[in-house]
């Protein structure tokens, strides 16, 4: 009796069935359903076209966490952070995280027994945190000038900040009708100065933004000096202007690398601080925090109360529903590492960044702008006119998988082009050495080809 072949419908080939023969629509819902495994393969294969997140040296965002943290976060994807009555343990963890951040920044009136004494909230990254900090400053300005005939309704509030701020500050000003007063940079100086601040503030200034770790170079702005200048201005009967510190990049670095540097609530002029947990807080995106010096700096009008999820819940975030796993991941890091662990991590990252900075400085091709000693960020530019540009270097490194951004500096220094490497957890000393070797190879090729800025117009990296 002849052997019978199995029926063909029982064969389920991975790549010779539907996916290979009939492309799935990309701009409308497919007409038919597909098996989970097929849907997974389709999406997984397309995502292979992305660059490697671990080799993305443009981003400040965390790309590696402990497997145990990943497991905890996967277990809590389904918990809605806003539903504090249904998920009281997650709500308590959020309150503890806020309290730990506030304590790290030396906020007022904190105690070991009462985490609710901390005035702040977790957010979707620093973008939401910035919006909340800005709104609080605007509302306090409105309270100060009043709402009568000569009150705030006939005036235009303004916010003083460097041209080097992250774009979210521009968004805040546009969305909430605040005049942005950008302080220009200049070649060789990429942070704001106290003198610039004093020249820009007036009675309608809701606040001054100072950055702890700029995204352009990783530098720390002179926050204590800016606060001292504003203190003297107020003492001389000038406007009494608060300071908000944008510590998105440096808030989880400076307390451990430079614990004696005063930039936070130890300076009485600082009223609010935002920080990104998904940057050097070492947590996957997106988690951030905003904290205020004390409750008096968060106007009650910004707090809403709802009861339709069960229980009375105050909320003062822009986002409502969001997964609780981000806060859980941050809490894992806080417990897992503690102050000693964060200090060790930041010291290791700084050491790697400074090694890379030294190697670049000693080369014949580059001059450093920042060497990784402030926060683990190295920014540098080409020496002289080698016959190619920083954009050509960036494009050459892409062939090796590295994503090293090249970009122009902000207003006042737009003719300056910079390369930047962000050293994060997961970027080991071995990877730093590999980057250096690949950089040497790319530069050797460019020295021969001299493309003269062939990739200047590409500029794939946006601030």
TrEMBL record:
Any single GO CC term annotated in Swiss-Prot or TrEMBL for this entry: cytosol
EC number: 4.1.1.15
Cofactor(s) essential for the protein: pyridoxal 5'-phosphate
N6-(pyridoxal phosphate)lysine PTM sites in chain numbering: 279
Reactions this protein catalyses: L-glutamate + H(+) = 4-aminobutanoate + CO2
Example GO molecular function: aromatic-L-amino-acid decarboxylase activity
Matching CDD domains: DOPA_deC_like
Top class in the EC scheme: lyase
Cited InterPro entries: Glutamate_decarboxylase, PyrdxlP-dep_de-COase, PyrdxlP-dep_Trfase, PyrdxlP-dep_Trfase_major
Single GO BP term: L-glutamate catabolic process
Keywords noted in UniProt: Decarboxylase, Lyase, Pyridoxal phosphate
Family: Belongs to the group II decarboxylase family.
PANTHER family, per database record: GLUTAMATE DECARBOXYLASE (PTHR43321)
Protein name: Glutamate decarboxylase
Organism: Mycolicibacterium porcinum
